[in-house]
Amino acid sequence: MSDHSKSSPLPTYFAVFFALLVGTGLTVFAATLDLGRFNAAVALTIASIKATLVALFFMHVKGASEKLTKLVVIGVLFFLLLLLGLTMTDYATRPWS
Amino acid sequence: MPDSTLVGLHHEEEHHPELLHHFADAQQQRDSASLGMWVFLATEVMFFGGLFCAYLVYRRWYFPDFAAASSTINMWLGATNTAVLICSSLTVVLAVWAAQTARRTLLIISLIATMLLGMAFLGIKGVEYKEKFDEHHVPGASFSFNNVPVPGHPGQYANPHHAQIFFSLYFVMTGLHALHMIIGLGIFLWLLIMSWKGRFTPEWHTPVEIGGLYWHFVDIVWIYLFPLLYLIDRHK
Amino acid sequence: MPQPAIAPPVERENYLNAKYGVWSWLLTTDHKRIALLYLLSITFFFFIGGFFALLIRLELLTPAGDLVQADTYNKLFTMHGMVMVFFFLIPSIPAVLGNFLVPMMIGAKDLAFPRINLLSWYLYVIGGVMMLHCMLTGGVDTGWTFYAPFSTNFTNTKIVEAGLAIFVAGFSSILTGLNFVVTIHRMRAPGMTWSRLPLFIWAHYATSIIQLLGTPVVAVTIVLVAAERALHLGIFDPKLGGDPLLFQHLFWFYSHPAVYIMILPSMGVVTEIIACFSRKRIFGYSFVAFSSIAIAVFGFLVWAHHMFVAGMSVYAALVFSLLSYAVAVPSAIKVFNWTATLYKGSIHYDAPMLYAFGFLGLFTIGGLTGLFLSALGINVHVTDTYFVVAHFHYIMVGGAVMGYLGGMHFWWPKISGKLYPEGWARLAALIVFIGFNLTFFPQFLLGYMGMPRRYYDYSHMPEFQILNVLSTAGATVLGVGYLLPMIYFLWSMRYGKPAPDNPWNAAGLEWKTPSPPPTFNFDEEPVVTWEAYNYDELDSPDKGALRGEEVPVAR
Asked: Could you tell me which CATH number the domain at C31-550 has?
């Protein structure tokens, strides 16, 4: 993968780095708040944003010349969600049986 | 009779020393290595995915006990480790940039910094594990989790069996993650040696790039492990 | 006058004679040599698994459990299953025919990662040796499905060792899949677009996706089982708050798609054979191609149909039942397309085609009985009976193994440079077909009538004996049918007629190389300008002469 942009990518890298640290701090802070059922959702949302930043900018998915990389990432997430989701159809509905 | 071992190149470009014979050109080799690493990382997502599935099932079933167990692991060590890994991802990305722009010194420094941060991560992990060992929270014969209150429910105590399931998942998930870190350190040691020998150029530095991809993946797994394991019901 | 000495003709250099010596094989990175290394190893395990099958069928000749003890019988069916699934069926076609043909079919010199390919074989061998050691020192008795909590808490057989063997072999499978995906994406020759790929390639691509996404989940499940056994964690133990069904979910998430790993490559083989021996393009190329991908994706949606009676939620069971009906559709599409290809084709009944015909009928029966099993009402009655055993053997043996044998016959001239004896091959195909049906059709009846599987003693149901005797008789015939190709393939390597480049006048880049091919397949990258399955051109008066010139062939 060659560097396509003419300008230096360094400012972007440092911006993402700071965003990741801020995100971590936010996660810890949010965990100390009582958001009821949304604590988990907030934590996972922040985690997902952090993971997306790492993937897009550090792993160079953004600006990847081929759609194939993005297809691999989206594909595997689809199958992971399938594993989790379809398994939960059993566990979530067992009390009804 | 033509020598069948002769390989015809249909480009006139110079045969780069790192070009393997079965590839048509360097671009194809580079693209193949990159796709290969991405596909491998996809398998790793599914590998950890099975554990996340088990975690999801039991967290729903035994939320109070999981919350109690989670409250006994050291959140600050976990948060520090998260920051350590984020820093290491930065140094990795700097290493790749250094390789792309022929900055050999920066490359070597970045690789060393990454490894030091990785070792710091493992060191902090070791401290955590020792804490758990001392508190008899390691699953197995000596596991004990009596009279630990459920956060937010005074008078209610966690079920030790269910807490043991939490710690089983904690140790398997973080242990597997740590194993991947150790392998990552091995990979980066090899990258360091190759960099020291000056093997990487702007034209060819594929191992640095795909080694970097692997390291970022290990970081991403931790980004999810931290809130799921350390931050269950911390507000109570 | 003395005759001048005539030197014997120099044998053209090919991948078999390019280098000699054990190390030139054990350290090879040539995908064709690695394919042969796999051929030897999986054939070895096929006989081990077959040996266990023989003992099972011998025990079941009589209602009483009089040949082996109950524990031993448990080990027999377990080892039969584990060896056949993990060390024969899953590698078989991809590791042998896939490794050999994928690069050639797309016009490449080798796979994307030849050294990883060799590593795959070594991982397979290491896993195999571990499994052998496990078997020789006591084996495992849980069934190949090693359900918890029996496997984690109660059995004292060598679960961890067997699990580790499967874990290692699983990585072999993952790396093969990785190699194929990257190769097919990156190393197609110029002009070899996705829509010109042989459907064998599409089938292997789909198979590889399953290998990559599914195998890691069973790998981590094995880790959990090992940890549970060692430390009594409680993850699957009800007494400690665990759920045995969680094991089943994680296990079947892989093991159901695994059956598509076992059948998809066979479908790819059958497609190639049917096109060639009907002298026609495959009917509905896009449908067949996309149905392979659909099978790979849908195959991940149905796993809990193995758990209908295990205690899962009835509502989830409804969902999985519906999805299981859906997964049959792409397979049915293939059957329709194969049939439509045969229609008005110029059919030749060579041995590969006989195997393909066998596949068509037997796979259809096996697949349809899968639909029976998807119906919740029927499932309750026939789960864990011989109906299920017959169902999956119709697909695995009547389908996958038939396809494998058909493919071995079809490509044997290319692989070995020799022709196998056609008369014997047709006889063997017939024997296999007859033996197979005699073995497994009675098992549908047995299961429907209520004979449970994994029972060594059915003396409380002596009326089942006659069908069991038929089944065992069939197994003997089947065994003969399998032995014959071993013998005449070996015979042909020494005494067979030298094969021409394209004995079948088949379409495909692999047939444009000599038999056997040179180490690097093609002198220069071929440039593809024709569509797949161009049998109309190949059979036209000029025999597609133009096409021959466009592919620079290594001589």
From this structure: 1.20.210.10
